[in-house]
Structures are given as C-alpha cells and as structure tokens.
Structure prediction request, 215 residues.
Amino acid sequence: MTNRDWARRADQLSAQAYSAGEPTAWFDRLYAEGAAGTIEMPWSRTDPHPLLRRWIDERPAVEPARACVVGCGLGADAEFLAGRGWTTTGFDLSPTAVEQARARHPGSAVTYRVADLLQLPDDLVGAFDLVVEIHTLQAMPNPPRAGAARGVASLLTPGGTLFVVQFRDTGVPTQPPPFPLSRDDLALLEVGGVVPVLVGEVDGPLWRAEFVRRV
Ligand SMILES: C[S@@+](CC[C@H](N)C(=O)[O-])C[C@H]1O[C@@H](n2cnc3c(N)ncnc32)[C@H](O)[C@@H]1O
Prediction:
C-alpha cells in the first residue's frame, strides 16, 4: 500500500457517487475506510494550510472573534485558528471526519460538528466574523457547487471576511475530483452582499481569495 492509495479509492467512490446522482455521498465513505485502516486517512495533514497561516500572520492587528472552518476534515485549520484566539467552529458533512477530528484533538477549544453546506442549520447562518473555505467547493461538481457556495457566503455576519483557497483551472485537463475552479466559479461566492477583496491572487495552481460581506 502506498500513501496515495486513498486517492485511487477516492476516484472509485466519487465515480460511483456521481453515477448514483449523489455527488457528495463519497466523502464519508472514504473517511470511514481511512478510519478502518483499509486505506491511508484522506486529507490527513496536521499543519494548517500554509496560505492560511501566512494570511493570518499578515494581519496581526485583526482582533480574533468568531471563526468557522467549512469542510474542516480532520481539523488542522480549525485548530490553528483556535490556537490564535479565534472562537472556532469546524463543520463537515462527514460524521467520520468530525469524529476523527475530535479524537485527534482531545480537549480542543474547537466546536466540531456535522453539518451540510447545502442544508445549514439556522444557528450557523450569519454567525461568523471569519469563514475559511479550503478545497471544499472544488471537491464537488456543479450542481451542487453553486448551492454550496451560497451556503459558504451565508455563514458570514455583516462585515465578516471569507478566506478561500482552491485549485485553479489552468486549462490543463484533469480527471476530477478535484474540479479546478475558474474565476467565474469563484464568483459563485459573491451572493448575499459578499464582494471580492483580493480574488485573483494566485499561488502556483491555487486561488487565494478574500471576500467581505458588505451588508
Ligand atoms: C477535499 S476535502 C478538504 C478537507 C480540508 N478542508 C482540507 O483542506 O484538508 C473536502 C472536505 O469537504 C467536506 N464536504 C464536502 N461536501 C460538503 C458539504 N456539502 N458540506 C460540508 N462539508 C462538505 C468533505 O467531507 C471533506 O472533508
């Protein structure tokens, strides 16, 4: 078994899920196989995404408040924000991912919960000063990506900031997932008073983008 075996399994499970018309059903199946040890644990980084760390470090004057990490997976980014003083919620569609995140971080200050961007619970809507979305929208086709993007935007409180990292569509054909995003795909986040601040800043094949909710 190689470290990348989970990626091959992701290809199989996602193809089955797309055929069944359930484009997000494969995430929990993949994490469950990781938890069972039949594949390496997917998306298993333990450090925060370097672009998130850099972005936070560049803003020492920003007072930590309420933060949300969307599609938090195993919790590395949520733990980082909590460590920097943010009152942090991390949510994921996958119950197994949330269980694993809690198990990895006993005593964590992060509130981990199971939630679906496509059917957000009322208490998460409009509740966050900072929303972090890393590699989740690009992990799904459209639909349901536009609905998920609306969900991401809806988490922000007026004046809140959205930080986004996604694979960028460079024109090179790839086998999804992921589905590298165009600038128009990123614009799906510009709903509900959310406007771009720094979209277009590119780091290699990545978008690093910042939005703010004006109203
Ligand atoms: C490519 S993984 C990225 C995980 C993590 N953000 C990272 O950067 O390592 C995408 C994550 O989004 C989650 N996800 C997919 N669809 C979702 C949805 N509709 N609502 C919430 N989370 C979702 C998956 O379970 C998975 O953990």
